[in-house]
Amino acid sequence: MTTIRDVAKHANVSVATVSRVLNKNGYVNEETKQKVLEVIKSLNYKPNAVARSLYKKSSKTLGLILPDITNPFFPELAKAVEDVANRSGYTLLFYNSEEQVEKEQIYIENLKQKYIDGVILATNSLNKQQVEGLEIPIVVVDRAINKNIPTVITKNYEGGKLATKYLKEIGCRVIAHIKGPDRNINAEQRFKGYIEEVSNEPWFHEELIIHGNYNMRTATEVTKKLLNKFPEIDGIFAGNDVMAVGAIKAAHQLGRKIPDDLSIIGFDGIALGEMTIPELTTIAQPIYRMGELATHILINLIEGKAIKQTYYELDIQLIKRESTKRA
Amino acid sequence: MTTIRDVAKHANVSVATVSRVLNKNGYVNEETKQKVLEVIKSLNYKPNAVARSLYKKSSKTLGLILPDITNPFFPELAKAVEDVANRSGYTLLFYNSEEQVEKEQIYIENLKQKYIDGVILATNSLNKQQVEGLEIPIVVVDRAINKNIPTVITKNYEGGKLATKYLKEIGCRVIAHIKGPDRNINAEQRFKGYIEEVSNEPWFHEELIIHGNYNMRTATEVTKKLLNKFPEIDGIFAGNDVMAVGAIKAAHQLGRKIPDDLSIIGFDGIALGEMTIPELTTIAQPIYRMGELATHILINLIEGKAIKQTYYELDIQLIKRESTKRA
DNA sequence: TTGAAAGCGCTAACAC
DNA sequence: GTGTTAGCGCTTTCAA
């Protein structure tokens, strides 16, 4: 391995000078500079990032903590984060927390020991105190913890309302909801949006709300039971796209025609929604934009740049496809 | 930040002693040890990983370079890699190369500068020389480069044969193939397996082979053209599941009934295959197992442990679901 | 404009 | 058993 010492020796200068040309700071004579640059090239020297980190107490690395990389929403997000991080010269440490608090806490200890510069976190498990105790810049994404913590989410409540209202508009008379995990704040918001729209309806009752755990297989099972018990249901708002797909499967297995007998709307706007038959009507979040924005904010925070705003609730968008009736 | 010096001072010992209890090596009196442990706890001291890396020239970190995290095959793989790495005390640096050689090369330089201990690589772009020039333990996964490089792949050729043979068995008379990217070695192998089974068939001609680029939308388009041109096609082997889903969509749009008019088989065994209607018959790779095995091999390589074998071609498995006729 | 040297926090060889 | 110290490769202060 060739070090800064080797370069210095070959160029007949001190390591300080080499360091100066490496970091483009301090005075260094044009000629010496050229010489050093030459030697660097000929020796194919690359500065050691670890040594630099030790001194600088910074590693040009971001941590990305995701609850489940297997849920298609998160790879789309991760791609955006990676894109922006890389373009800004940061690398990405990736953690899959599987929604386990203990894992998250271990990860975070790990991050601190490595002089990681900042963290992008999607979690329900950590609370405000825990996050603020981190002493590391952090941006929370997808699942808000607290308004004082930099955050990028979307209008989940409005989205839930919009989805439900749309089902009403196209003529659905009994609308059920497949809810995500209780402890998940965005599932809760989407659910509240639904409630807002249906609680005064004469047909509404609590049993129209079922729990699908943001997971296809569970959603299929519970939807089948639901449709068997209440065949009058003609609209389903699923808390995410994956569960909506599960609901489509359930309907199909029971011989219910979509969208003629039953309209289904999801939430997320993941690519999967265009792969199903019928294609999925959904409330789309700007997933790439979320990752991009979160990473920008984080990097600005790290680099001490001015930031106008650190709490974002991005707009969602109704995408009409084939799983819902025409209005 | 509290350092080893602080601990030493508070415990009235030298840093060497603290280091000894930290690393559980060298002699240290039980009492002193307890004292040190106490101080560590009371100060909430965590050793600095960067300083340790600098000395050890190792960072307990693995690099994971994937071509496209957005392709559902890779998150499933990444999950396995992350699981095993974490369980063995390694963290994971994640790179999304988007199939670009330049990006991969930048990433790899990066890795070396950070004392990354090893790399898991899924790529077509790098050749044998480039990989061997790395001077870092590496395991290639999903896409073989060379038999001398540690590798975990599956029997792509056999899989291609098996898929095609199965379509013949269930009575398909004209079988098309949607091929993955030309430069992708696994796409090539699957294609060869297909060819082996069909090249002597009287109905076979070159135009039954179309290019779908491992991508759903492209696959839908080309399949529609194909089916319009050759309506006699009653079986399609798609080079991966995502393209198979694209083919299902195409068939659906053209009003072809699956599996009655047309049987479709994919390759990969990703979770998506169970989400579609009809559910996808496929040649399943043991995706989790691939990631797990690759990571184990890599860690053994890094830690200098004995390894019986470094080139694995895992078995694939035919999973019969609804997109193909019954035999 | 350049160099010597201290120091980032840790490990390990060597001395006692 | 324990301490002293050099050194991992780099940056930056200070002096020249």
UniProtKB/TrEMBL annotation, chains A, B:
InterPro entries: HTH_LacI (IPR000843), Lambda_DNA-bd_dom_sf (IPR010982), Peripla_BP/Lac1_sug-bd_dom (IPR001761), Peripla_BP_I (IPR028082)
PROSITE patterns the UniProt entry points to: HTH_LACI_1 (PS00356), HTH_LACI_2 (PS50932)
Lineage top rank: taxon: Bacteria
Alphabetized Pfam families for the sequence: LacI, Peripla_BP_1
Keyword Transcription regulation: yes
Keywords, sorted A to Z: DNA-binding, Repressor, Transcription, Transcription regulation
Domain HTH lacI-type: 2-56
GO molecular function: DNA-binding transcription factor activity; transcription cis-regulatory region binding
Protein name: Catabolite control protein A
Provenance organism: Tepidibacillus decaturensis
